[in-house]
Design brief:
Length: 534
C-alpha cells in the first residue's frame, strides 16, 4: 500500500532528484480549535454556527462523519495527535497537566528532522511540561509564532493574530522547503463574554434547534451556546485568512489542510468525559494533489492517532525511520483515494474506535483520576468505568474541577442544591455504574444506559470483549492490573491539590467558578429533605 501511494503521489521522491524531491512533498497546515464538538459547523448542517472556511475545506476535500479523539481533554488528546499512540500507551502524557515523556518523539519533530520548516501559533501541546533538549524546552509542535497581536472581539478571546503569525511563518520559510504549521486556536475554550453571541454575533436563542437533553433548556443555557458559537466563528475567520494567504502565495493547491478540534465543547457531560459530545469531533481535510473526487463525506471511523502516520506518509517519511515510538494509528491515505466508498458506511477495518481517560483535572484524594475505557462501534458506545466509587468530574467539595465553569454548570448545581432537576445533576456530576451502553442512533446525548438491558446483553458482552482484547494487545496497564500507575505520575502544577485544599490552602482554579465548590457537609446526592435517587 505504501509503495502504491508513493508511486501515485510522489514520483519525484528519489535520491537522484535532490531539491526537486523535497519540493514535491506537500506542505501541511494542521488547524485545531480548542473545545469544539461535532456537529457544530455549517458543513454538518448546524445553522447557528457559521463556519464558511471549514465548510470550504469540506466542500473542496473530505468531510468526516465519525472522527474521534481517544481522550477528550486538551493535553492527552494533543499527545495522541503528536505521537500516533493512544493515551494509555503514553505513560505520563496520558494525564492532563503532566510531563511529556522524552521517549516519545512527535511527528512534528520527525518532519523537522526530514527537511520540513515547522512552527505553530496559539496553543500547541499543553497544559503540562514538554521537557527539555539541550537545556531548552522541547518544540513538540515546532517553533512558536505568536508575537503578532490584534484587538480581539471580546476581552475573553485571545489577542493573538493567528493568521498574521502564519503569514510571518511563510515569509521566514527557506525557499523551496516544504512546511508543517500547527494553528492552535484558543477558541472556543472558556471563558466567554456573556451575551457575545447575541450582542456581537447577531444570534438569537431561537436559532438553536435543540438543547441537549442533559442540560436545562433555558435562556441562560441557550445564550451560553451562542457565546460558544461566536468563538468558533472567530477561529474560523482566521482559518479563512490562512487559506487566502496560501492562495496568494501560490501554495494552496500544494498544501494538505486538516481542520478539527482537540476535544468536545466545554459544557457538562461533554469535555472531560467519554461520551458522544466529548470525543466525537469535526474533521475536514483538503488536499488538491492527494484526494480523489473532493466533496465526499467519509463514514468510516477514524481516530486522532491516524493523523501522525498520515502526515509522515504524505511527507515521504517511512514510520520505521521517523525515530518515533511504534504508532497505533493508520494512515488516512486509502480514504483519500477511495472515491467509490458509500458516504455513510463504516467499512471493515474502519468500523470502530477506542477511547478512554485517566487523570484529567485534579480534585480527588491522592490526585487520583477517573479511569475509563470505551469503544464506539455501529453507532453504539460501550464504556467501562474502572473506579465507579470515585466522583467522575472530581470531588464536589473541590468544585467538580473536571467540568469547566459556565452558566450551564452553575445552573445545574444551583438547581440541585434546591432539589430541582436532580436527575440532570446526576447525569452530569453524579457517580456512574461500572458499565454503560448507549444507542447513539436514538440517544446521542447518552442518557439511557442500556448496559443492564437483557435485549442488549449480547452486544454489551461483545463490545466489552473486543475492547479488552485490543487494549491488552496495545499493552494498556489497566489490562495487566497495573492501572494505578497513572495515578502516581506527578502533576506539573497542582500536585496534592485535594489534601492542600482540605488543609486550608486555596490555590487558584480560574477554570471554574467560586460557586462550583460545594460547602462542607452538603451531600449533593441527597439535598436536605430529599430522598435518594437510587
Amino acid at each position: 500500500m505504501k509503495r502504491i501511494f508513493f508511486a501515485v503521489f510522489f514520483p519525484l521522491l528519489t535520491a537522484s532528484h535532490g531539491e526537486a524531491a523535497i519540493a514535491a512533498r506537500p506542505n501541511i497546515l494542521f488547524c485545531v480549535s480548542d473545545d469544539q464538538s461535532f456537529p457544530h459547523a455549517g458543513a454538518y448542517g448546524c445553522t447557528w454556527v457559521r463556519t464558511p472556511a471549514f465548510d470550504r475545506v469540506a466542500r473542496e476535500g473530505l468531510l468526516f462523519a465519525r472522527a474521534y479523539t481517544p481522550n477528550a481533554k486538551c493535553a492527552p488528546s494533543r499527545a495522541c495527535i503528536l505521537t500516533g499512540r493512544n493515551s494509555w500507551q503514553l505513560e505520563d502524557a496520558a494525564n492532563h497537566g503532566g510531563y511529556f515523556p522524552a521517549k516519545f518523539k512527535t511527528f512534528v519533530e520527525a518532519l523537522g528532522a526530514h527537511g520540513y520548516h515547522t512552527g505553530f501559533t496559539g496553543k500547541g501541546w499543553g497544559p503540562g511540561e514538554p521537557g527539555k533538549v539541550d537545556g531548552a524546552p522541547r518544540l513538540l509542535t515546532g517553533r512558536a509564532y505568536s508575537s503578532l497581536r490584534a484587538a480581539p472581539p471580546t476581552a475573553e478571546i485571545s489577542p493573538l493574530d493567528y493568521a498574521a503569525n502564519f503569514e510571518q511563518f511563510l515569509r521566514e520559510r527557506p525557499a523551496g522547503q516544504p512546511f508543517f504549521f500547527w494553528y492552535g486556536g484558543n477558541e472556543p475554550h472558556r471563558r466567554y463574554a456573556a451575551g457575545s453571541g447575541a450582542r456581537l454575533g447577531g444570534k438569537s436563542p431561537e436559532q438553536i434547534e435543540r438543547v441537549p437533553s442533559v442540560w436545562p433548556d433555558t435562556a441562560a443555557v441557550r445564550n451560553d451556546l451562542l457565546d460558544y458559537a461566536f468563538e468558533i466563528e472567530h477561529f474560523d475567520r482566521h482559518l479563512g485568512r490562512m487559506l487566502a494567504a496560501l492562495a496568494a502565495a501560490g501554495e494552496l493547491e500544494h498544501t494538505l489542510v486538516v481542520v478539527t478540534s482537540d476535544n468536545g465543547m466545554p459544557f457538562p457531560r461533554a469535555k472531560g468525559t467519554a461520551y458522544e459530545l466529548s470525543n466525537h469531533l469535526p474533521l475536514a481535510i483538503r488536499w488538491s494533489g492527494g484526494i480523489a473526487r473532493p466533496g465526499r463525506i467519509v463514514g468510516d471511523y477514524v481516530s486522532f492517532v491516524d493523523f501522525a502516520p498520515t502526515f509522515l506518509e504524505a511527507a515521504g517519511v517511512p514510520t520505521d525511520t521517523a525515530g518515533m515510538a511504534p504508532i497505533a494509528g493508520r494512515t488516512l491515505g486509502p480514504l483519500f483515494r477511495d472515491a467509490e466508498a458509500p458516504a455513510a458506511v463504516a467499512r471493515a477495518g474502519r468500523d470502530h474506535v477506542l477511547v478512554g481517560q485517566e487523570r484529567h483535572d485534579v480534585g480527588r484524594p491522592r490526585d487520583e483520576g477517573y479511569p475509563v475505557r470505551g469503544i464506539f462501534r455501529d453507532d453504539f458506545l460501550y464504556l467501562h468505568n474502572f473506579e465507579p466509587t470515585r466522583w467522575p468530574m472530581c470531588d464536589p467539595i473541590t468544585g467538580y474541577l473536571n467540568t469547566d465553569g459556565s452558566p450551564t454548570k452553575s445552573l445545574i448545581l444551583a438547581q440541585n442544591r434546591l432539589g430541582v432537576n436532580r436527575a440532570l445533576w446526576a447525569l452530569n456530576f453524579g457517580r456512574r455504574p461500572a458499565e454503560e451502553l448507549y444507542d447513539l442512533r436514538a440517544d446521542r446525548d447518552c442518557v439511557v444506559n442500556l448496559a443492564a438491558d437483557a435485549a442488549n446483553a449480547g452486544r454489551r458482552a461483545a463490545m466489552r470483549r473486543q475492547l479488552f482484547e485490543e487494549l491488552a494487545a496495545q499493552k494498556d496497564p489497566r489490562m495487566a492490573g497495573q492501572g494505578a500507575v497513572f495515578d502516581h505520575y506527578p502533576h506539573a502544577s497542582y500536585a496534592g491539590f485535594y489534601e492542600r485544599f482540605m488543609r486550608g490552602e486555596k490555590k487558584p482554579t480560574p477554570w471554574v467558578e467560586a460557586t462550583d465548590y460545594e460547602k462542607p457537609g452538603f451531600d449533593p446526592e441527597l439535598p436536605p429533605g430529599e430522598k435518594p435517587l437510587r
